[in-house]
Amino acid sequence: MAKLGDWIEPHPHGIYVKPADIWVDPSRPSPRALVTHGHADHARGGNDAVWATPETLAIMHTRYGPQAGHPVAYGETLSLPGGVEATFVPAGHVLGSAQIVLDHRGERIVVSGDYKRRADPTCAPFEPVKCDVFITEATFGLPVFRHPETGDEIDKLMAALRANPTRCVLVGAYALGKAQRVIRELRDRGHDDPIYLHGAVQRLCDLYVELGVDLGELRPATDAPKADLMGKVVVAPPGALNDRWSRRLPDPITAMASGWMRVRQRAVQRNVELPLILSDHADWEELTETLIEIAPKEVWVTHGREDALVHWCMTRQIKARALALVGYEDEDD
């Protein structure tokens, strides 16, 4: 009797779907690739052919140049060689992110990529899919990680602005997904002032706007007079928080939007005055509740705290294993 899921092979550089001769999220250029989303630890340039959502292909084009891309809409099913069908459904991680549902010989495997269950005004929400094998991330796969309400964290940012009218709030946020989410969350809570951007996040903010995400008035922070920046939000990549670029700002309150801000030592190491616990990954409760909802026969765990989630599965008689995929970064999330 064939082993469940033996038609796909996890390798350090990606997941190989044998009968279709195609890779999912390969970390090295491949002849044929299915890509879950645009973050660099999942989407690499140089593939001969790529199937992804239109938004992910646009992100890859912006980051890597023209792609040999084939757009796949949410809910669309591809008929691949070897009798494999692939369907893309929302993952709720960033704009265009998808879970890839693979069906073959009566078995269903879901490669979830990265995902979250919190509402996000910049992307489609996660859709649970019943399956035989669920391949899940475990970035925050420890019980200590329980993300607070998004609105509470945004309120902290807005309160800091009101209390410090002669300073700016400099928010470190990953350039793809997190920066745009912070901006949109501010807009949804009534913050209509111009938001200033570091050049490294401008390009992807412009792309989000082109793809239909309204981010309000955005201005470049570089060369803006200090007086214009007082009482304003400035969004920059995390690496810019303490470099020479930030010294031009008016006494910035250094903030960082990341799930890792739950760990106080991380905030201290980065000299973060205002930690904002805002993640684009599922926390411990969301990971475990998702597994209960989907009810897979097996769970394969990758890029994160694999051991804790595997142990949780085993105590509930769910067969589980850790995958040794390489190249995954925490996206400062």
Based on the structure given, which CATH architecture of the largest domain is correct?
Answer: 4-Layer Sandwich
Write down the CATH topology of the largest domain: Metallo-beta-lactamase, Chain A
Alpha-beta content class: alpha/beta
Give me the Rg, rounded: 20 Å
| Secondary-structure element order, N to C | EEEEEHEEEEEEHEHEHEHEEHEHEHE
Query: What is the molecular shape?
Result: globular
EC number: 3.1.-.-
Organism: Sphingomonas aliaeris
Enzyme class: hydrolase
InterPro entries: MBL (IPR050698), RibonucZ/Hydroxyglut_hydro (IPR036866)
Describe the protein in words.
The structure is a single chain. The model has no long low-confidence stretch (mean pLDDT 94). The chain is an alpha/beta fold and 333 residues long. Helix 4 links the parallel strand 13 (195-197) and strand 14 (218-220). The strands form three sheets. It has a seven-stranded mixed β-sheet, with helices on one face. A six-stranded mixed β-sheet has the order 1-2-3-4-5-6. The radius of gyration is 20 Å and the shape is globular. The chain has two domains: 8-144 and 281-322, Metallo-beta-lactamase, Chain A (4-Layer Sandwich); 150-276, Rossmann fold, CATH 3.40.50. The chain has helices spanning 54-64, 150-163, 178-188, 199-210, 226-229, 264-269, 284-294, 306-315, and strands at 8-11, 14-17, 22-24, 33-34, 50-52, 69-71, 77-80, 84-90, 98-104, 107-111, 133-138, 169-172, 195-197, 218-220, 233-236, 253-257, 274-276, 298-304, 319-322. The longest helix has 14 residues, at 150-163. 24% of the residues lie in helices and 24% in strands. The termini are far apart.
